[in-house]
């Protein structure tokens, strides 16, 4: 059940991110990128899986008498923390950059920015 | 970790992390010295020299010395692999580090000269060192997620460099570049997450070990072929292989030329390195029946490891790169435009022997393919680095780099012309320059693989190289001096850097024997997964004593 919900959420986030990424407004593009990187983070969390807690994998559970609860993989959580920090920094940078683009071009419309090659 | 008597200070394990620490310390120190331009410049120079010494020490004590171990590892924080992050320096890492250090130093000296006084107060030098840090970390890490982190470090610095001049075209180019790479980072995470879910580890040595014996670890390695394809697309974006080449012309034109030299010479090679390291050292051992039919053509790609798939994909991408890059370069009307497209084509030349190595069954040919790719990459770094730096020198001297505004530079500045000429000839592949051996080995690998279409493709690519090199030379260096050129006064230090690189190209060609031995060691290291796994020696998680810990 959890797997299905997670899969649906990841899929919906990627779809929404892609949709925003393809908009003409630069700010929406940044939003799209932010949502796609969050979708990747949720996916990464889901990849750790949920396993029955054992005393071997989680030593602190040895103090619990009535059976160990389910546990999530801590490795992916550490990875996601790093990825969130990087994604946060890059989103901030992309927002500042889009403001600079606006200052230089007086527009945030992707099709008006054009793609000239010199 | 065996202490080596051969290393004068510390152990060979400590030597592995030395270049990273040096460049990190330099970056932070230059960041703090923002208000003191002189001290900052002095720290920058000291850091660059120390970095070069550390890389040279790795080359000698770990790879080239007669009693060298060939590979050394550093377990960060003394956490045993696969729990902690492992840094690994072997022949492949050392070869690429040396290459990047060479172009890095040249670009650094050039930057010192080209920047106006005001810019020395800005964040140019800290960024420069952070870019080098990202590249160095990517070459040394032995952990897949850590590779992602170093990619990001490298990219963050390069984003700002693309936007550095702050004009309309620079900010626009930077935005496309950032958007594309953020997307690529998300794809990288997808690949990393999938590989972790499939194999239960991200340590490269542990991965290689588990994939070689999936049954012993109870994993089903099937999904890694697709995940490797995801990673290949990320690395192809960094390397600029078609169909992921579209960002290169705009970004390379927007960044300052001395940084473009570094982007073409160093960050591109990180993409190539990651492809070689992951395909050959890590994933080559996986025994997987691969049979994919390419829709429409009816050709079936098959083999018994993910390499077959990688090789087929690389062939297509490399072939398209050679054609797109070569044809694009012939029609450009500015120096950096020509060289940006030329970079796309040249990466195709590097990827072809990698593809040959991935698809062949013969160990000798596989070794030759990697060797050819490395020698070609070395030539590309030196020659293309020189050419991009010469764009900077021409711009400093004349204020333009448009072919229409140039002409007759050869008479105005013969030393600049000589350096440019050497690099152009090396790109074409004329003996005795380094480019000759690169081209020769690539053709040799293609001939031994007995693939006529590939040979024809390489010939066409070489002809296109001759065409655009000649055209660029004729338009900018020969002919009547244009008004911009008549008033030009090239900077002597800049020209000296160019001549130094030209001398390096000549030296690599004339004294090719030691370079060949180094590249040979690098290719051997790239293919020797067992030595890599032994050196890292990941702890077997199942074998850990679960009653230990003492926290009960």
From TrEMBL, chain A:
Keyword Membrane: yes
Membrane topology: Multi-pass membrane protein
Gene3D superfamilies linked to this entry: 1.10.287.3510
GO cellular component, one term: plasma membrane
TM stretches of this protein: 6-22, 29-55, 75-97
Record localization: Cell membrane
Pfam families membership: Oxidored_q2 (PF00420)
Primary location: membrane
Source superkingdom: Archaea
UniProt keyword annotations, A-Z: Cell membrane, Membrane, Transmembrane, Transmembrane helix
Record-given protein name: Multisubunit sodium/proton antiporter, MrpC subunit
Native organism taxonomy: Archaea, Methanobacteriati, Methanobacteriota, Stenosarchaea group, Halobacteria
TrEMBL record, chain B:
Keyword Manganese carried by entry: no
Spans through the membrane: 13-34, 41-63, 83-110, 122-141, 147-164, 176-197, 224-249, 270-288, 308-331, 338-358, 415-434, 454-473, 493-512
Compartment annotation: Cell membrane
Keyword Cell membrane on entry: yes
Domain NADH:quinone oxidoreductase/Mrp antiporter transmembrane: 142-283, 309-465
Record GO biological process: ATP synthesis coupled electron transport
InterPro entries: CPA3_Na-H_Antiporter_D, NADH_UbQ_OxRdtase, ND/Mrp_TM
Domain of life: Archaea
Keywords assigned: Cell membrane, Membrane, Transmembrane, Transmembrane helix
MF (Gene Ontology): NADH dehydrogenase (ubiquinone) activity
Membrane topology: Multi-pass membrane protein
UniProt GO cellular component terms: plasma membrane
Protein name per the record: Multicomponent Na+:H+ antiporter subunit D
UniProt source species: Natronorubrum thiooxidans
């Amino acid at each position: 059940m959890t797997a299905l919900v997670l899969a649906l959420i990841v899929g919906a986030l990627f779809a929404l991110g892609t949709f925003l990424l393809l908009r003409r407004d630069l700010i929406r593009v940044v939003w799209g990128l932010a949502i796609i990187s969050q979708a990747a983070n949720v996916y990464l969390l889901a990849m750790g899986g949920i396993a029955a807690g054992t005393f071997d994998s989680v030593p602190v559970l040895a103090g619990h008498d009535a059976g160990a609860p389910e546990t999530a993989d801590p490795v992916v959580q550490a990875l996601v923390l790093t990825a969130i920090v990087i994604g946060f920094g890059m989103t901030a940078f992309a927002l500042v950059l889009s403001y600079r683009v606006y200052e230089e071009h007086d527009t945030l419309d992707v099709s008006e920015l054009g793609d000239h090659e010199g | 970790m065996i202490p080596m008597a051969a290393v004068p200070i510390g152990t060979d394990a400590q030597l592995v992390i030395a270049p990273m620490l040096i460049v990190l310390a330099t970056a932070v120190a230059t960041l703090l010295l923002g208000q003191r331009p002189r001290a900052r410049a002095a720290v920058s120079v000291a850091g660059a020299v120390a970095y070069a010494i550390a890389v040279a020490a790795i080359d000698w004590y770990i790879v080239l010395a007669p009693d060298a171990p060939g590979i050394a590892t550093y377990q960060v924080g003394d956490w045993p692999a696969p729990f902690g992050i492992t840094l690994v320096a072997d022949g492949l890492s050392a070869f690429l580090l040396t290459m990047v250090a060479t172009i890095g130093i040249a670009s650094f000296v050039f930057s010192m000269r080209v920047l106006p006084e005001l810019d020395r107060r800005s964040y140019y030098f800290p960024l420069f060192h952070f870019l080098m840090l990202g590249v160095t970390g990517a070459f040394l890490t032995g952990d897949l997620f850590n590779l992602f982190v170093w990619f990001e470090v490298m990219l963050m610095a390069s984003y700002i460099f693309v936007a550095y001049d702050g004009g309309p075209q620079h900010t626009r180019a930077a935005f496309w570049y950032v958007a594309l790479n953020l997307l690529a980072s998300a794809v990288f995470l997808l690949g990393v997450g999938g590989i972790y879910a499939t194999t239960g580890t991200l340590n490269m040595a542990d991965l290689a070990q588990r994939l070689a014996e999936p049954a012993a670890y109870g994993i089903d390695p099937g999904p890694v072929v697709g995940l490797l394809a995801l990673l290949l697309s990320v690395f192809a974006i960094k390397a600029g292989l078609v169909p992921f080449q579209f960002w290169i012309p705009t970004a390379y034109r927007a960044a300052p030329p001395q940084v473009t030299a570094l982007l073409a010479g160093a960050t591109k090679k990180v993409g190539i390195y990651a492809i070689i390291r992951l395909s050959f050292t890590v994933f080559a051992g996986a025994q997987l029946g691969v049979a994919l039919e390419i829709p429409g053509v009816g050709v079936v790609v098959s083999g018994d490891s993910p390499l077959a798939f990688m090789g087929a994909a690389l062939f297509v991408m490399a072939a398209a790169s050679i054609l797109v890059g070569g044809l694009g370069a012939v029609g450009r009307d500015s120096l950096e435009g020509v060289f940006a497209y030329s970079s796309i084509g040249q990466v195709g030349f590097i990827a072809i022997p990698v593809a040959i190595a991935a698809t062949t069954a013969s160990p000798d040919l596989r070794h030759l393919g990697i060797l050819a790719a490395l020698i070609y990459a070395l030539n590309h770094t030196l020659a293309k680095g020189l050419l991009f730096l010469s764009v900077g020198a021409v711009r400093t001297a004349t204020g333009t780099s448009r072919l229409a505004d140039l002409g007759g530079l050869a008479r105005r500045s013969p030393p600049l012309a000589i350096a440019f000429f050497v690099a152009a000839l090396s790109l074409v592949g004329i003996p005795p320059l380094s480019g000759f051996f690169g081209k020769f080995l690539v053709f040799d690998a293609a001939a031994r693989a007995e693939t006529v279409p590939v040979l024809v493709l390489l010939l066409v690519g070489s002809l296109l190289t001759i065409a655009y090199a000649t055209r660029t030379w004729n338009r900018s260096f020969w002919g009547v001096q244009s008004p911009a050129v008549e008033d030009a006064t090239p900077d002597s230090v800049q020209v000296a850097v160019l001549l130094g690189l030209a001398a390096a190209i000549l030296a690599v060609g004339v004294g090719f024997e030691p370079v060949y031995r180094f590249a040979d060691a690098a290719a051997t290291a790239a293919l020797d997964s067992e030595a890599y796994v032994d050196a890292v020696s990941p702890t077997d998680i199942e074998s850990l004593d679960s009653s230990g810990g003492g926290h009960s």
